[in-house]
Description:
Elements: H1 9-14, H2 17-29, E1 35-40, E2 47-51, E3 62-68, E4 77-79, H3 83-91, H4 99-113, H5 117-120, E5 123-129, H6 136-144, E6 149-153, E7 164-168, E8 174-181, H7 184-200, E9 213-219, E10 222-227, H8 241-252, E11 258-261, H9 262-265, H10 267-275, H11 282-298, E12 302-308, E13 317-320, E14 323-326, E15 333-337, H12 340-353, H13 358-372, H14 380-401, H15 417-429
Antiparallel strand pairs: 1-2, 1-5, 3-4, 3-5, 4-6, 6-7, 7-8, 8-10, 9-10, 11-12, 12-15, 13-14
Amino acid sequence: MLNTRRTDSAQAAREPEWLTCLRxxxxxxxxxxxxxxxxxxxxxxxxxWGTGRTTRDLQDAVGSDFTLVPWSRRAPLLVPPGxxxxxxxxxxxxxxxxxxxxxxxxxxxxxxxxGLTNAVLRGRVRVKAPPGIETIEAYLTDLMARDVRVxxxxxxARANRKPVLQLLTRSGETVGFAKIGVSPLTSRLVRAERDxxxxxxxxxxxxxxxxxxxxxxxxxxxxxLVLSALPTWERRRQVTPATLAxxxxxxAGVGGLRRETLAESGYLERLRxxxxxxxxxxxxxxxxxxxxxxxxxxxxxMLSFGSWHGDWAPWxxxxxxxxxxxxxxxxxxSGVPEGFDALHYWLQTELKMRHRDSRxxxxxxxxxxxxxxxxxxxxxxxARVTAVLYLADLATRYxxxxxxxxxxxxxxxxxxxxxxxxxxxxxxxx
Length: 430
């Protein structure tokens, strides 16, 4: 559903991918007859585009000027007008993965609070709409029953990229976040997160704080999920391995843990069924064959099956004086081998925080699985089987979602996940 209402094909061919996504998202959230104008002033490379009617046709138009944060050109971050709201939008932005990145976030927040936007920023999105026109801002203002301003984060190129809106008051208080489903996949994930958080809200979790669902609805054909704001901007602490493992064990037990053989669980059969929905090709065929071989070599392996977050990574959590907060629950699933969350956290840390080679990191997931999963009481043999199942589950997700086609850097499992999977399956069969 990310499409434009007035697109110059020659212009679209010239502009970078992130800019196309930003333009298309704006056009969905501020539909015609609203006008949208982007102005970017880069040295030697100015850019400007606009949609809809001219402002002369909208004499009584009202709107907002959003600022484009300069470091996020491949993952656009728009902050709303108003010093306090703009500063809070950046300060409360939770995408910074390292201490250095968080320092940059804090410095820019201070600059915005001081009104120094012209000195440090060169991008702006101007939105104008006639009074009474239903835009996403008008919808959310009515919903929240208070005047809210929105900031927008789009994230890097991937199949599940969608607008995430931060809802702020004029004084800079964050009152919620809204996720917008803009495609069949992202709409399904928005609904899945609603269902997961509804279920988990009744689980009485002791070691994890999660967002609350404030609203779910459909606006102009787009799924809208509004969540409470976790105080992720508070001073963070280093989470201990023991605290993290305890939280993951607690989550795995939501709905109960079942200990049974891989064959009895039905998990492998479900995984093959999911993989069958992916486009046919070499990668799908290689993975399907690997799962078939695993049936013969690991079917009698005893495993514990429970629930997992699905994307528990350092940037989807924060540990503060209030405890452990975890968000982005759209991939939550039950009936998977215990330990998937720990393996995913380990792999994502290696890839994104330590910048390891992806192929080597995938192989090391299996090699290091006995140590990573020892806090869960999983023996070495079962840990290696759990690791290969985790990698196969991740590869299936990438293939079904067509992540490579969407431009995700790690979206092609044949380049890094499948060698690790097939190598371990061959070892198990030997």
